Amino acid sequence: MSGKLVIIGTGPGNPDQTTPQARDAIAAGEQFFGYGPYLDRLSLRPDQRRMPSDNREEISRARAALDAASKGASVCVVSGGDPGVFAMAAAICEAIETGPETWRRLELVVLPGVTAMLAVAARAGAPLGHDFCAISLSDNLKPWELIERRLRAVSEAGLVIALYNPISGARPWQLATAFKILRESLPVTTPVIFGRAVGRPDEDFVVVPLGEADQQRADMATCVIIGSAETRIIDRPGMDPLVYSPRGAGL
Amino acid sequence: MSGKLVIIGTGPGNPDQTTPQARDAIAAGEQFFGYGPYLDRLSLRPDQRRMPSDNREEISRARAALDAASKGASVCVVSGGDPGVFAMAAAICEAIETGPETWRRLELVVLPGVTAMLAVAARAGAPLGHDFCAISLSDNLKPWELIERRLRAVSEAGLVIALYNPISGARPWQLATAFKILRESLPVTTPVIFGRAVGRPDEDFVVVPLGEADQQRADMATCVIIGSAETRIIDRPGMDPLVYSPRGAGL
């Protein structure tokens, strides 16, 4: 029995942003592991088996998927966005490293996707137009002190910042604290973009200055992009402004 | 006359990684502006007009595209990867900000794509599995001192680093200097990934320890990913090793 495990990124949510490569892999899969709402977005056939799990059960989901593949199944593990950005690819690797030897012999394929910050940036203009970083604001797996240190380092170095996992019921104050830290080194006029479900019917998208950025605008699925001191806004008559970061920068 | 300008990311190069949204926009376009090799990858019809230009002419290309759109054409500006990551979206915004008022009234759409670091990361495993950044090593538009400062800040803060534009004929020493700076704060065993044309027939992909990273392995189109101190390698019998960054981290 030799199974196969494919880790798939379906993109930001609009089906037109899922790559043909990911669609073909979904069509060929037998068993599907992932967060329930992500699996709901796939149009699976009756012969394809759904194995939904909660968002916080990444390692047990990874082990279950590897176990199914090692028994000979063609298994898909599904992430929204890109599976390598704060998603299932790292969890699968962790499970392989600490799991039975047979899991290292499985055929493993990771298919990239359009991650949330790219979709939010495209909606806004070009806020990631120069050097940038992506930081998860979840302190479930790393100490909050480390997140604070990273926020200070990257904002002082002039990088645009994309925040993933900005807030949740169990992490209610972290985003407000992050904004407070960023106000120490960035102008209050720095554009902050809140983007959620961009390109989907329930899209939520707003640009506010850092001085007025309120964590109430975000939920678990929001990607928050904070500009650098160079990030600019172009007003346009009758249209949303464009937010962009010039390609160049000074010292 | 009201034209339209669509800025399109075609993904890493494998046509199966171009989103249906980008394909549809290409099918609907009349005039195509972009770096010649990117335009060559599109299967344009005889009635669709190619306007290729050199890689270093981004602002003049942006202005020509905006001018054509303002005259009523349906214009596509084409980038490889994602247009918002060290590509044409920021150049178009710069041109709009400094250009005639009419350019602000144009319908402008940015369509995201799979950027190089996501494709290279997927090929390797999950090296971007925790906090990471993307830095262009080109000092054409920013001083080298700023790049050095950013490399120090992000490596000391524990971020994984994706380097874009690592080397070119006119910038022959920058990548070797970057490796030298990173060796000051990262272990010599830190995995470094060189990925070029991933998923295409001419793919070039290799993983080496930072202590042996040689800039000769890269060219202009290579994306170089340097792990953090936590990034790990899983050996697999008869297959490439997996490179991944665990989701958690300590202080």
TrEMBL record, chains A, B:
GO BP: cobalamin biosynthetic process; methylation
Pfam families, A to Z: TP_methylase
Domain of life: Bacteria
UniProt cross-references to InterPro entries, sorted A to Z: 4pyrrol_Mease, 4pyrrol_Methylase_sf, 4pyrrole_Mease_sub1, 4pyrrole_Mease_sub2, Cbl_synth_CobJ/CibH_dom, Precorrin_MeTrfase
Pathway in which this enzyme or protein is active: Cofactor biosynthesis; adenosylcobalamin biosynthesis
Start and end residues of each Tetrapyrrole methylase domain: 4-213
Annotated keywords: Cobalamin biosynthesis, Methyltransferase, S-adenosyl-L-methionine, Transferase
Protein name: Precorrin-3B C17-methyltransferase
Natural source organism: Devosia subaequoris
